[in-house]
Amino acid sequence: MSGRTPDEIWEEGVEEGERRLKRSVSGLVATGFAGGAEVAFGLLAVVVASGAAAEVAPEHTAHVIGALFFGIALVLITLGRAELFTENFHIPVAAVYARRATLWELMRMWGISLVFNLLGLALMLGLLSIPGVLKPESTKAVGPLADTFAHRDLLPAFASAVVAGAVMTVFTWVVAAAESVSARVLVAMGVGFLLIAPSLNHAVVGFGEILFGILTNTSSATQGDLWGNLMVAIAGNLLGGVGLVFATRVAQVRGEPGPSASGERPAKP
User: Cβ distance 196 to 160 under 8 Å?
Assistant: First the structure.
């Protein structure tokens, strides 16, 4: 359990958000591209594990087993300091809220991170989709992932996206609170499972799952499904991340009594 108070977590988050928002364009491009590529590595782990499990278990059970391994992507992103679009709904927003960065800098980060997340993801999935790179059972496991997102109606797709945004924003708060690398790894693995097992509609991950299905010809998903779901996911992720979780954490920090452990209260929201 973390010994940090909400005040301390908030202040550290504001400082980290300010640092990230002040990155150059080239820095944002590099970290965004890396984040997208690492999501592809997580999806690779999922389809390899679920494809193997499907040889001896029902499809749903195999999917749940595969979901245990997606957290590898979040471990790489967190420890390697890459950027994931939905990971930026708390710490950078806190820096803007505390007036240590501008709204323009936040919009710049969001835009560059999203675009290069998708580019890094698409490049890696394109390589993985070349016939012969993956075993047939792994490739076969891609289709059901894509079909889940492609066949959802609008309301459940949006509701799933709200939950996904909330989960990822809670993830960034808890990682900021964690005091050891091992704790961050455990949180990343757990949140990865929580995203993939119920197929929550995360903008970047869902885009990757649908695109993977299209590239491998294992899904009935279309280009319209790919881009339409992305728009729904972005809207829902923003609502869940900024509208629900970030607002809740602001209220939590404002409600903390007394001074922080250092004897001085950090600048509050």
Answer: no
Q: Are 89 and 165 contacting, i.e. CB atoms less than 8 angstroms apart?
A: yes
Query: Among candidates 69, 39, 29, which has minimal Cα distance to 212?
Result: 39
Which helix H or strand E contains 249, and what residues bound it? helix 247-254
Q: CB–CB of 117/85 below 8 Å?
A: yes
238: its two tokens: 């923003």
Beta-carbon contacts of residue 53 (< 8 Å; ≥ 6 apart): 61, 62, 65, 66
Q: Scanning the structure block, which residue is given the tokens 């979040």?
A: 74
Give the integer Cα–Cα distance in Å for 76 and 125: 17
Q: Does the pLDDT of residue 29 top 80, yes or no?
A: yes
Backbone conformation region of residue 99, classed left if phi is above 0, alpha if psi is from -120 to 50, else beta:
left
Cβ(128)–Cβ(44) under 8 Å? yes
Cα 11 from Cα 192, distance rounded (Å)? 26
- Stretch (H or E) spanning 228: helix 223-238
Q: What is the DSSP string of 42-111?
A: HHHHHHHHHHHHTTTS-HHHHHHHHHTTTHHHHHHHHHHT---GGGGSSHHHHHHHTTSS-HHHHHHHHH
Q: Which tens digits make up the pLDDT trace of 9-23?
A: 777 778 888 888 888
Other CB atoms within 10 Å distance of the CB of residue 257: 4
Residue with tokens 């499809």: 59
Selection from 204, 11, 26, 57 nearest residue 118 by Cα: 204
Give tens-digit pLDDT for 158-210: 999 999 999 999 998 888 888 789 999 999 999 999 999 999 999 999 999 99
Q: Sign of the C-alpha dihedral, residues 124, 225, 192, 184? A: positive
Q: What is the DSSP letter of 258?
A: S
